[in-house]
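Retro notes (design track)

What went well: tokenization of the new backbones is finally stable.
What didn't: we kept losing track of which sequence belonged to which structure.
Fix going forward: every design gets posted as structure first, then sequence, in one message. First example under the new rule, 248 residues:
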């Protein structure tokens, strides 16, 4: 990918919506060039063009979602990696922050990584870590394994910590996922009763999606950034959940 395209994606995914004029000014090229860049990036499925601006793309594709708020997600992944001791076996479910976490642990090479994400497994193909990819029905949109066979696999593997990705949180609903099949897998993971850690950036708070993840009392820790709404932070703490806020 062209370095300029990387900068554009970081700007759009960080702010959600950016005008063409602002992109041209910040990137240092003409508006004509920016429009050509945006057309190319839209064709590749990385963002959405609207009149005079570009917006983030709401997609399950991990290749695309990893660009959204990538800098803070890397900070979150580093904080989560620090929770994993050498020799541990951890389950990493899915989501863009979890992809970054898996890569960091893979670079360390001192943990066993269990995952339901074929995308994560592929990212770890060069790692010296033991990687266990769970079986199940392949879901192309999220590059994940889902369904009854995936649940059966989870019931028969052992791990000390699980890192679960989410798409939303609201006090009225708890944590949710836009993908109900992935939410089903997440709930099976939580039911194992290990140290369950939600890894998500603060942009997910205030959103509600169809797939419920919980109950909340099965979640031990939430790792997020310092922009989490105060009301949500207070609610989570009141439920006995440890909250790790990462500054950025």
């Amino acid at each position: 990918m062209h370095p300029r395209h990387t900068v554009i994606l970081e700007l759009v995914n960080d702010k959600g919506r950016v005008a063409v004029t602002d992109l041209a000014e910040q990137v240092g090229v003409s508006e004509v060039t920016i429009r050509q860049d945006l057309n190319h990036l839209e064709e590749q499925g990385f963002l959405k063009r609207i009149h005079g601006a570009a917006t983030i793309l709401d997609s399950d594709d991990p290749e695309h979602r990893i660009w959204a708020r990538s800098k803070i997600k890397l900070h979150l992944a580093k904080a989560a990696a620090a929770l994993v001791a050498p020799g541990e076996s951890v389950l990493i479910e899915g989501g863009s922050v979890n992809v970054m976490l898996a890569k960091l642990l893979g670079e360390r090479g001192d943990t066993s990584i269990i995952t339901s994400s074929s995308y994560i497994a592929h990212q770890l193909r060069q790692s010296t870590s033991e990687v266990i990819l769970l079986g199940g029905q392949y879901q192309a949109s999220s590059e994940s394994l889902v369904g009854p066979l995936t649940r059966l696999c989870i019931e028969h593997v052992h791990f000390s910590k699980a890192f679960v990705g989410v798409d939303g949180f609201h006090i009225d609903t708890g944590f949710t996922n836009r993908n109900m099949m992935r939410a089903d897998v997440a709930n099976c993971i939580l039911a194992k009763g290990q140290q369950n850690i939600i890894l998500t950036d603060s942009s997910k708070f205030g959103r509600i999606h169809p797939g419920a993840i919980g109950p909340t009392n099965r979640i031990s820790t939430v790792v997020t950034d310092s922009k989490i709404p105060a009301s949500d932070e207070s609610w989570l703490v009141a439920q006995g959940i440890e909250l790790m806020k990462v500054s950025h």
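Added context from the reviewer: The two ends are 26 Å apart (CA to CA).
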